[in-house]
Amino acid sequence: MIDPNDKNLPKIDTEDPKATEHVKLSRRLFLGGSAALVGAVGTMGATMGSALLPSTAHASSDSKHTVGPGELDEYYGFWSGGHSGEVRILGLPSMRELMRIPVFNVDSATGWGITNESKAVLGENAPMNGDSHHPHMSMTDGQYDGKYIFINDKANTRVARIRGDIMKTDKITTVPNCQAIHGLRVQKVPHTKYVFANAEFRMPHPNNGLNMDDIEGYYTMFSAINAETMEVDWQVIVDGNLDNTDADYTGKYAFSTCYNAEGAVDLAGSMRLERDHLVVFNIARIEAAVKAGKFKNLGDSKVPVVDGRKGSDLTRYIPVPKNPHGINTAPGGKYAVANGKLSPTVTVLQLDKFDALFEDKIKPRDAVVAEVELGLGPLHTAFDGRGNAFTTLFIDSQVCKWDVEKAIRAYNGEKVDYILQKLDVHYQPGHNHTTMGETRDADGKYLVSLQKFSKDRFLKCGPLHAENDQLIDISGDEMKLIHDGPTYAEPHDCMIVHRSKVKTRKLYDRKDPTFAMTVEMAKKDGVTLETDNKIIREGNKVRVYMTSVAPSFGMNEFKVKQGDEVTVVITNLDQIEDVTHGFCMVNHGAQMEISPQQTASVTFMADQPGVHWYYCNWFCHALHMEMRGRMLVEPA
Ligand code: RUQ
Ligand code: CUA
Ligand code: CA
Q1: What range(s) does the Cytochrome oxidase subunit II copper A binding domain occupy (predicted)?
Q2: Residues 361-380: pLDDT tens digits?
Q3: How far apart are CA 605 and CA 584, in angstroms?
């Protein structure tokens, strides 16, 4: 356990008059008080390097949360895979990993990034890396509708869409005119027309390599992507940079945090001001401006760009302390909470004041109804639908449960303790999420806290550690830690959806658009995919069409010539749920999944004369090993 008298631990300044009881009592003693924290990113660094701490909390095993073998979970969790570039599906409360959805990465199990169908989604010369942060499901009337899941790629400025019925990525959009899409949310009401995407980094315009130093002229922007077409419908230039975003429950506003109101290009500069801001976007006014032609185009891009910098009619800037990070709308739709990060406070905004704000009847700070201290390093807030909020305290390594209405009363001078409980988490949480908590249906059953560090919680696997996703029971008055879940890099964020909202297919529809292009190609070749096993040659392009039924391919062997570009197209005729086949051409870098009733194709060069075996690489039958065939490449 931590010895508070240990001389090696940094001192906490309990004499600091500005520190509240909660900050003073902060159990993690390896950092200074709030005064030391503000502006002290160096200190945050020190935290990360802190000595291995013994764990203090162990899960209370409670059988009501146990999901036995063969039992199904109550919730789907959609986990961002961070710089793995993927999305993962977990079951809750078991925290079992159910599936991985490749998005901005290459996946050899499914052939994502290898098959022609996935390459068509990724686009030509697509970067094969990604940094996914924020998965969000489409909504209708503020409730999850199961249709799509959207996720950003900070690394390559992209937004992807995953289809909820087959859990595969079906569209990827590169957002023009900006760098690094970070914050992402959906319009909640009346339905998800737009996916809102924040570009984080300010850059010169035009960005032609002629100017690095005129940082005054840098800017970044907020983008609205049409959820159906996945085209960027419009962009808004802003002051400062953009971090996270959320939307309200009227459909009228979206709002984004900014940690760099200073417009700095270095660390110290971006911490100079005591307050940065929240930018509020008036969606109707922006749409009207675009419609009226009050926009410009940048570079080759056709996207209408409007100017939402300070003084614009389209936006309002609300000052909030200091380098804020998460912004989270409460399920009732009345409030949103901006999380202070370098300030130990959260800022509560009352969203029905935004109408008056845009009519200039009130000042920006009048939309703030509370700004209260919670502890060190508040990053994100989740809600239980019963008036309580749960905020991660990165530096304190805690989740703070607090009462929103009481916080407002305390801010107005009443002597009321708004903090209900602080629970140690292990260690340094970023996002946290409650079951259904980002919708009207918040049910307050579980909270997931996503920790950036696991330190001593798991067996060591070398210098690189797993992260730790903890499951917390919030159904009672007290938060109870019930599960530690190691995860691979890096679940920034997740989203927890009741299983009733998700309806997936058992088999592919033969008309599925994910392989429509391949069906089209077969049609041109006069091939019926469901019956034919045929080779079509067109110059040195060879298309090999075959079916598969466990445990055999429709073709045992085929012949091509050295120098041919070979496309193997496989249609899985099995109608049985879960009988997925694979296709792998040995030594040719070609491998893919073909699920029941799916068609998939892969193209490779036949440049080595000789016999080359292909085989099924998804275990499908007792004779799965025998599901194989030969390609003969005749020398040129
Ligand atoms: S951000 S740790 Cu990429 Cu969601 Cu907050
Ligand atoms: Cu088909 Cu294994
Ligand atoms: Ca700042």
Answers
A1: 537-636
A2: 999 999 999 999 999 999 99
A3: 14
**How open is the CA angle 26-28-33, to the nearest 5 degrees?**
55
pLDDT number for residue 296: 98
Nearest CA to ligand 2 atom 1: 581
Tell me, in angstroms, the distance from the centre of ligand 2 to residue 322's CA: 56
The pLDDT value recorded for residue 56 is 56
What letter would DSSP give residue 56? -
For residue 41, the ligand closest to its alpha carbon is 3
Contacts of 316 (CB under 8 A, 6+ apart): 279, 280, 282, 354, 357, 358, 364
Q: What is the 3-state secondary structure (H, E, C) of 234-261?
A: EEEEECCCCCCEEECCCCCEEEEEECCC
Helix (H) or strand (E) holding 516: helix 516-524
How many angstroms separate the Cα of 261 from the Cα of each of 19, 248, 304?
26, 23, 24
Query: Amino acid identity of 578?
Result: D
Atom 2 in ligand 1: which residue has the minimum CA distance? 430
The phi and psi torsions of 130 (rounded to 5 degrees) equal -165, 170
Q: How far is Cα 412 from Cα 423, in angstroms, rounded to an integer? A: 27
pLDDT tens by residue, 231-261: 999 999 999 999 999 999 999 999 999 999 9
Is 612 within any annotated ligand binding site?
no
CB atoms within 10 A of CB 82: 21
Burial category of 214 from C-beta neighbours within 10 Å (exposed 0-12, middle 13-18, buried 19 and up): exposed
Q: Is 430 in the pocket of ligand 1 (CB under 6 A)?
A: yes
Q: What is the dihedral of CA 431, 435, 440, 441, to 10 degrees?
A: 180
CA of 272 to the centre of ligand 3 (A): 6
* 178 annotated among ligand-binding-site residues: no
Beta carbons within 10 angstroms of residue 363's beta carbon:
12
Q: Cα–Cα–Cα angle for 12, 14, 16, nearest 5°?
A: 105
Residue 524 one-letter amino acid: K
| Length reported for the chain | 636
